[in-house]
Every structure is written in structure tokens, then in C-alpha cells.
């Protein structure tokens, strides 16, 4: 969800105004995704590198997160939407961790759209954590080193309960992955709209899906037609 700060600066507003408007887009896109029959959607909300931002901006982002967990989870649950968080949650405040735990437990049996927030998330860190977990199981005799393959390794990732993404959308025309779902995006289609995230609405999501539907996904094969 890129471009919140630049959206605000172009309007001579504080960067935090962009984050507040960006939160509104999350709610709109979640609703749109559910209506479109999407199975799972992941929002890259806060990276491990975002801790390097000014403390005031971090504090406001965490306040928005807390408010989201306080106000929106009931609505998600009402609409049969499952909520999950991926990332190093242990580095978040205990207050936020407890709100996340309650939100995940409250919605864990819902069968509609799965909404995932990537918080304190970095894909390289995720892969390292997965490798450490597997190595620990080998050391304890719970896993066999020679049995490891791509399928079994994926079970140690934060996303082991989720399908790999079909489509990555990064707003503001920045053409970078930025340490997001590096393993999982191996075969995903990439889409880079010009709009900043606060301007990305339901019609833009529908456009992105239409572009995706026109692409040919061969997974290394050739089209014989």
C-alpha cells in the first residue's frame, strides 16, 4: 500500500493524513474483495524496516492499527471474514499482540474472505525464521534433513495456512517487491498502478483483476495452441 506520505505531501498535509486516508481504502478494498469472491488478500501494513521512520509517525500508525483491531473486527466477523496477521508479532507491544490474538481467535472459523495484515514483516526474516525452525526440528529428531523440499519447507513460513498469491498490486508505480513475500510471489503476476494507495478504490481493484485475467500464466510451460 505505497504512496500514503506522498499523497499527503502533494496536498500539503501531514504524512499521517495519508495514512488515515489509506486506512479507509483498506476497508473499501476488503469489502470489494469479498464482493468479488476473492479467497484471500494480504495488506503489507508495516515492514521490519518501517521502525526506522520518525517515532511520531510510528506511534500514529500503531494507533490506527489499534483502532482497526478495536472497531473493524466485529464487522469482519459479521461478514464471515477471517482475520490473520503475519510477521514477527513478538516485537509489537503486548497490548497490540493481545488485540491481534483476540481478533484471530474471534474470526478463525469464518469461511469467507481471509484478510491478512503483514505487520513487522520482512520476507528475508521470514525465510530465516523458517530455516531456524526446520533446523531445530532436525536437531531434536523431529524432522529429516533429506526429506526437505519446496513443499515441506513452505510449511514453516508464516503463510503456511494460505495459498500463494496469484497477483501482487503495488500502488504509486514503484516497481519493487521491497522484501514482501519473496518465496510466495515466485509465480505471481505483478501489477504496478500509477495511483497512490489513498486513491486506489474498488474500480481500480476491478481493473487490476481484469488485467490479470488477460495474462497467460504458463509456469515454465509453452502454449501449444
List keywords for this structure.
225 residues, alpha/beta, Undecaprenyl pyrophosphate synthetase, three-stranded parallel sheet, two-stranded parallel sheet, 8 helices
SSE diagram, text form:
Elements: H1 4-10, H2 15-35, E1 40-47, H3 55-71, H4 73-78, E2 82-86, H5 94-107, E3 114-121, H6 123-139, H7 150-154, E4 167-169, E5 189-191, H8 202-214
Parallel strand pairs: 1-3, 2-3, 4-5
Helix pairs in contact: 1-2, 2-3, 3-5
Described by the principal axes of the CA atoms, the overall outline is globular
Largest sheet: 3 strands, parallel
Can you list the strand order of the major beta sheet? 1-3-2
Query: How many domains make up the 3D coordinates?
Result: 1
Q: Could you tell me the strand content as a percent range?
A: 5-15%
Q: Kindly report the average pLDDT value.
A: 94
Q: Please give the CATH class.
A: Alpha Beta
Please tally the helical runs, counting DSSP H or I stretches of 4 or more residues. 8
The structure class reads: alpha/beta
- Span of the ends, CA to CA: 38 Å
User: Could you state the order of secondary-structure elements as H and E?
Assistant: HHEHHEHEHHEEH
Using only CA atoms, what is the Rg?
18 Å
The CATH superfamily is known as: Decaprenyl diphosphate synthase-like
Which range best describes the helical content: under 10%, 10-25%, 25-40%, 40-55%, 55-70% or over 70%? 40-55%
Low-confidence stretches: none
CATH architecture: 3-Layer(aba) Sandwich
* Number of E-state strands: 5
CATH topology: Undecaprenyl pyrophosphate synthetase
